[in-house]
From TrEMBL, chain B:
This is Amino acid ABC transporter permease. GO terms for cellular component: ATP-binding cassette (ABC) transporter complex. Its main location: membrane. One of its GO terms (biological process) is amino acid transport. The keyword Cell membrane applies. It is found in: Cell inner membrane; Cell membrane. The chain crosses the membrane at residues 20-44, 56-79, 91-116, 187-205. Residues 20-208 form the ABC transmembrane type-1 domain. It comes from Mesorhizobium mediterraneum. CDD domains: TM_PBP2 (cd06261). Keywords: Cell membrane, Membrane, Transmembrane, Transmembrane helix, Transport. It holds the Pfam family BPD_transp_1. It is a multi-pass membrane protein. The lineage of its organism: Bacteria, Pseudomonadati, Pseudomonadota, Alphaproteobacteria, Hyphomicrobiales. GO terms for molecular function: transmembrane transporter activity.
Amino acid sequence: MTSNRSKNGTGMIEFRGVNKWFGTLNVLRDITLSVEPREVVVVCGPSGSGKSTLIRCINGLETIRDGDLVVDGQRLGDPATNMTRLRTEIGFVFQSFNLYPHKTALENVTLAPIHVRKIPRAEAEKAGRELLAKVGLADKVNAYPAQLSGGQQQRVAIARCLGMRPKIMLFDEPTSALDPEMISEVLDVMVAVAEEGMTMMVVTHEMGFARKVAQRVVFMDAGAIVESGTPDEFFSHPKTDRSRAFLSKILRH
Amino acid sequence: MIWQQLQSIAGSYPLALRGLGMTVMLSLISLVLGTLIGFGLGILRTGGNRLISGAIGAWVDLIRGTPFLVQIFLIFFILPELGIELDAFTAGIIALTNLAACFICEIVVAGIRSVPTGQVEAALASGLSRWQRMRQVVLPQAMRIVLPPLVGQYVLLIKDSSVVSAIGLTDLTRVGWLVVQRVPNGLLVFFLVGLGYFIVCYPLIMLARRLEQRMGAAHGEVQL
């Protein structure tokens, strides 16, 4: 069960005036955004709009130039914040899965619990098998990533994150690298995780997923948050020209 | 004539065995030490610290860019002037270990850099420490790239060990020089010396070839 505690009345994830540059390119512009515990936020926008960079900042895969980013009550970049410790509370699902190719599905799931959480091997393996069963891969426990389909690999990757019992899960275009027939098996797992009350930020263009579980959709363009609202508001009555143009492109097919 | 020479050479077999033993001993010790130090240097070289990384890079370039014979002379004849007395065997081991470590460092660095960034990011994201990322995620995958040239480097090391005969160590090559003074048939004597090296090296060459084939086929599980 994830904790609902959040210090100083702030959200689980709290961006305040965050800016980031790649060289002279302002990839994040004055981002202010608060994600409450158990909230599911979908981030969408055209490619290059800074969506991935936004969520990669949350677990420190990218660093911010200025502004405040507070995650689970800890300010990033603060010397008092132990980034390695904080990362154990944040699951991150990559577009390209990034499973460890030299380890089996079960070993992928148990690696961090055994070495970081120091859970006894037998216990970690039992939990790992249960998680793999939960994502529908009870029969693939001993398979290597190369022997699994993309959809199966991504489900192992989700199980790998869940194995750490994180407070937050971040998804960076989790279905973009998948063949169309495998997308729903991954989305189904993500819906199940959301329904258990996980705090989630999901970069995706899967609007069906957004309608089903998201409390909020955030639309980004050119590094800035242009619009933010409930899925219904956003899809039925987009407020800006840019979001209308974006929606007309992704909903056309 | 040839027959007499062969008999005379055969009479020197205790000396030849001693030489072979010395060559194997020198190679084996510096191979083990050089591998350990080479891996350590390679890991440090790819670590975040620019100063350490730069210093290792400069040292490796220096060693790769100077003849091994010169390095041995420096260690054996120049260090004593600075007050560091070394016997020939220790000097040989130090020179060979240093040479092996530098080449192996480069091989390890190439292997570590071949591991996709996504792997490190996945390990970072699940909270693994720097050493855990290296030990559990990066090195096992790097070994696929590292192992074949590593074994190839061992072959080079065994052959380079012949240079230490220059500081008076009775290795296989020096035994050749000693025998040829008694048996004036350089072609025959050094053919046999070469054969001695080949017998030691050939199994390693075969091993490197097999590793290369296996690494290409397997889906990446190499146990350290």
